[in-house]
Amino acid sequence: MRFSLFVHMERWDESTTHREQFENLAELTLMAEAGGFGTVWVGEHHAMEYTISPSPLPVLAYLAAKTSTIRLGAGTLVAPFWNPIRAAGETALLDVISNGRMEVGLARGAYQIEFDRLVPGLQATDGGKHLRELVPAVRKLWQGDYAHDGEIWRFPTSTSVPKPVQQPTPPMWVAARDPASHDFAVEQGCNVMVTPLMKGDEEVVDLKRKFDTAVSNHPEITTRPEIMVLRHTHVHDADDPEGWRPAAEAISKFYRTFDAWFGNKTTPVNGFLDPSPESKFAERPEFALDSLHRTAMIGTPAEVIARLREYEALGIDEFSFWIDNSMTHEAKRDSLRRFIDEVVPQFAQAKA
């Protein structure tokens, strides 16, 4: 099992600048590359300060010039916000800039608040049809001339310019949860990225079962797709028995802020929304700190290693260290350093 870093600029108030946040993201990426991580992933979100990423591609192009080995993942592009020609050309350009290190993830989208501003009238729950049309169109454009006459997009013969370095195509990933999404991804020859969010490791088992079912249903796909698990991760000092608590509190704040944006009930102020109040979740045990301690990947190095061993035994190909969590940059950096120094070598030795 290999490791990747999932990271965004993350601004909770105006005490830091966007430039400072960008430099922090670059520092964490360089640490991850030096520490043996395989990929850095940056997603797409619009007009929200707590997840700053209007496009992952320029961020990844900058990182391409600063790195040499780590792969550069756009994870994920929101399908309804992209024309296939633009998606194919811009991702291929990143592959050229990085000399064949680009990977692209695609998703249907989640935040109605973004849809209301970028594609008014479209429900986020209907984004799946855009995803199902975009994935094969991008792959065909990467490979040569292609004309498209679909439900969403129509265009005469065109192609991706430039062409990607990786042939026949760069790796494509699809964010999946329900069985139909897993089946679509595998049928298209795509890898699958999943997140159990606030659910326990039984959810990881269930998501892997859905993936395996999809793989078994498509024996015509001769190159087995891969599965990645994305999970909030924080490694604390083994000498601090309460070290988990600040991380659980920070991740609670992150999820309560997610709830505020996802609920789409309040107009943001200059890109900020306050987290939903803790009282709203009094009857939601998954938001309790001790529950988040168990479900998020929070623990001492030994505790994290033990859980990751279970993921590896389950057949997870990639574990993505989701570092967004509302903590300070210094706390994130310390956690990532512990993971690199004390967790990663255990898996490198096992693989060797």
Description:
An eight-stranded parallel beta barrel has the order 1-2-3-4-7-8-9-11, surrounded by nine helices. The protein has a two-stranded antiparallel ribbon with strand order 5-6. With 352 residues, the chain is of the alpha/beta class. It has a domain at 226-351. It has eleven helices and eleven strands. It has helices at residues 18-34, 56-66, 84-97, 112-118, 128-143, 179-187, 201-216, 244-263, 289-295, 301-314, 329-351; strands at 2-6, 39-42, 71-78, 102-107, 146-149, 154-158, 172-175, 191-194, 227-235, 297-299, 318-322. The termini are close together. The protein is 44% helix and 16% strand. A hairpin with a 4-residue loop joins strand 5 (146-149) and strand 6.
In terms of topology, how is this protein built?
Layout: E1 2-6, H1 18-34, E2 39-42, H2 56-66, E3 71-78, H3 84-97, E4 102-107, H4 112-118, H5 128-143, E5 146-149, E6 154-158, E7 172-175, H6 179-187, E8 191-194, H7 201-216, E9 227-235, H8 244-263, H9 289-295, E10 297-299, H10 301-314, E11 318-322, H11 329-351
Parallel strand pairs: 1-2, 1-11, 2-3, 3-4, 4-7, 7-8, 8-9, 9-10, 9-11
Antiparallel strand pairs: 5-6
Helix pairs in contact: 1-11, 2-3, 3-5, 6-7, 8-9, 10-11
Compact overview of the structure:
It contains eleven helices and eleven strands. By secondary structure, it is α/β, with parallel strands linked by helices. It has a domain at 226-351.
The amount of helix comes to 40-55%
Largest sheet: 8 strands, parallel, barrel
Poorly predicted runs of 5 or more residues = none
Mean pLDDT: 97
The rough form would be described as globular
Beta-strand percent range: 15-25%
Q: What is the H/E string? A: EHEHEHEHHEEEHEHEHHEHEH
Distance between the ends: 12 Å
- Count of β-strands: 11
Compute the gyration radius: what is it? 20 Å
How many helices? The count is: 11
Strand order of the largest sheet: 1-2-3-4-7-8-9-11
